[in-house]
């Protein structure tokens, strides 16, 4: 029978590998049977307390138990919404306003903070509910009634108006993604992952569900290791990591500091990367130290469940070349649409649009924003069919491979994070003492640069901003101006700001 | 030392680098900062910090970082 529920992966694996380590960090491990028992306990608890088909906020430190809480939420017929302890309070408040959740699962490290939220519902500690005795009857009944179009998670991404957008994904698109990703990357029961990305983004799907599907193992790498490359590579070797799906900056951090002169990864054979351009100079260093390994570039928006295109590096690249986005996974089509909604020809630029099961359900409680980007396929006037407009501009090269060109708007990719410059500006403009501001991005140096006019100084501005925005959205350079440059229409002139910035840099 | 402080202040203007010796322990610097600091030091002081010196102890304070730069410059 065709798979309709993401938890079916677990049904098989629990029989084959009950005592194998499923998820671990530096000093804590959970076997599949522990994850199985505790997640089913949480599912039973949620149902018995009247929670069903609704968001469950998971507010925990990055830990194998946090992952178990995700699965527990799905067992209970609800959908999980991961929130990070390092998210600033204002952002969490905005997310809560959108969700109006009735329940939070937290742990000892987050319990106190959770109580400070303006929130009406119940707060439970993981350890208090995870030892609930799983009730087989309840859990099979929930499973029987579940549809593959029911949501399993919501993750929040940057929104240009200052309001984060909650992308809702269902069983069907996640199964489609995991099946195709696993085929391309060739995961199996021997796969040992080192997870780098935060658990509050879709990026961690790459490790979480293949681990369930194959009975593989995932190690969560402590965030601080990504500052200290020797320690990081030693960790990879100690845990015999053979597969990583990381953002490019995590990989280049290792190679750029010549870490390989001191220590090299011994077991790595599959390196998937994405979200940013991989500078060829750094890529070559990796290829040199791991000549037998497979290197695969992944591309895809959160709105299409994760990744939807891939390119396996199989030829040499010049220093000024870019590694292609490649082509779509099976069961996905990419349409390159020009401004007039016709298909771009070879070498012509167009917006990258995605068609297929990989599309998520859209943005939570935001039909307007959803309808702007999840739209009727303009090439189909015969029946309803949605495509997702990514806002990324691409073109096909002479080999027929898809290449990323640029963004249509002010969205940027910074250290693997997707950021709307508008959201930064929105939050700066709300600060006392700010008259106006404009943010630009220095792609080469990978710096967010903020210009502002007002009567506060930059240290003050930065420390106030840290209460409002996640760390990765804080500008790296903040410059005060007497007046902001404006266009003849009175709008902020970003081109002039960019020019001013380039001008000062070259001085 | 002044050039180093300028590099650091550019990243986190609100930190008092004369007294702070927990830049790593208190998670003030993140991996992005480390990458920027190392590349700016190499431009400014013409020293390359080798991977084995990229350890928490050398980045916890401006003073420790400065001593590292001096040591590396002497070795050249």
**Shape, per Cα inertia axes of chain B:** globular
Domain module tally of chain B: 1
Helix content of chain A: 25-40%
* Most residues in contact, chain pair and counts: A-B, 31 and 24 residues
At the fourth level of CATH, the homologous superfamily of the domain at 412-506 in chain A is ANL, C-terminal domain
**Oligomeric organization of the protein chains:** heterodimer
The first-to-last residue Cα distance of chain B is 19 Å
User: What is the radius of gyration of chain B computed over CA atoms, rounded to a whole number of angstroms?
Assistant: 11 Å
Q: What is the number of helical segments of chain A per DSSP (H or I, 4+ residues)? A: 16
Q: What is the level 1 CATH name of chain B?
A: Mainly Alpha
Q: If classified by CATH, what would the architecture of chain B be? A: Orthogonal Bundle
Key descriptive features of the protein:
heterodimer; A: alpha/beta; Luciferase, domain 3; GMP Synthetase, Chain A, domain 3; 5-stranded antiparallel β-sheet; B: 76 residues; Non-ribosomal Peptide Synthetase Peptidyl Carrier Protein, Chain A; 4 helices; 57% helix; 0% strand; globular
What does this entry look like structurally?
The complex is a heterodimer of chains A (507) and B (76). In chain A, helix 15 (458-465) links the parallel strand 25 (447-454) and strand 26 (477-480). Among the domains of chain A are: 325-407, Luciferase, Domain 3 (Luciferase, domain 3), CATH 2.30.38; 412-506, GMP Synthetase, Chain A, domain 3, CATH 3.30.300. A five-stranded mixed beta sheet of chain A has the order 11-12-13-14-15. In chain A, strands 16, 17, 19, 20 and 21 form a five-stranded antiparallel beta sheet that branches. Chain A is globular and about 70 Å long. Chain A has 507 residues and is of the alpha/beta class. In chain A, helix 1 (8-16) crosses helix 9 (205-214), helix 8 packs across helix 9 (205-214) and helix 11 packs across helix 12 (280-289). Chain B has 76 residues and is mainly α. Chain B has a single domain, classed as Non-ribosomal Peptide Synthetase Peptidyl Carrier Protein, Chain A (Orthogonal Bundle), CATH 1.10.1200.10. Chain B contains four helices and no strands. In chain B, helix 1 runs antiparallel to helix 2 (31-45). The mean pLDDT of chain B is 89. The A-B interface holds A 223-224, 226-231, 249-250, 253, 256-259, 261-263, 415, 446-447, 458-460, 462-463, 471-472, 476-478 and B 10-14, 24, 27, 29-32, 34-36, 38, 48-52, 54-56, 59.
